[in-house]
Design a protein that fits this description.
Strand content: 35-45%
Order of helices and strands: EEEEEEEEE
Distance between the termini: 61 Å
Shape: globular
């Protein structure tokens, strides 16, 4: 009927911090969490917190902008090549979001390393 529309999902409040660091969990075991991570061009992911050291691999070239816990720009935009691997060792838990400032969908695989993976258990 005229004037009706599909219900929409409420937007996540920017103050909500998620422990889900990717779009979809692909594997979760004693050693690693493996995530598929995708962001459409011009969009940003939810605010999330990293608690584990991790690395990510770009499946295709991308350009991203980090956002801090207040959803403000942090640093300069970063360009990543296809198959580029970036390792992040955390000194403390990190809260951030990512804005895709490129023209194509961002596609990454994120691998969180659990203490057992580092021989700490």
């Amino acid at each position: 009927p005229h004037g009706t529309r599909e219900p929409t999902k409420p937007l996540m409040a920017t103050s909500t911090v998620s422990g889900e660091v990717g779009t979809k969990m692909l594997l979760n075991n004693d050693v690693v969490n493996v995530w598929d991570f995708r962001i459409a061009a011009g969009q940003q992911c939810h605010l999330h917190q990293h608690l584990l050291d991790y690395f990510f691999v770009n499946l295709k070239p991308s350009q991203t902008q980090a956002l801090d816990e207040a959803n403000q720009l942090r640093g300069a935009p970063q360009f990543q090549e296809a198959m580029q691997l970036t390792y992040v060792e955390l000194a403390s838990p990190a809260v951030h979001a990512v804005l895709n400032v490129g023209t194509e969908e961002l596609k990454q695989i994120i691998v969180e390393l659990k203490p057992k993976a580092c021989g700490l258990t």
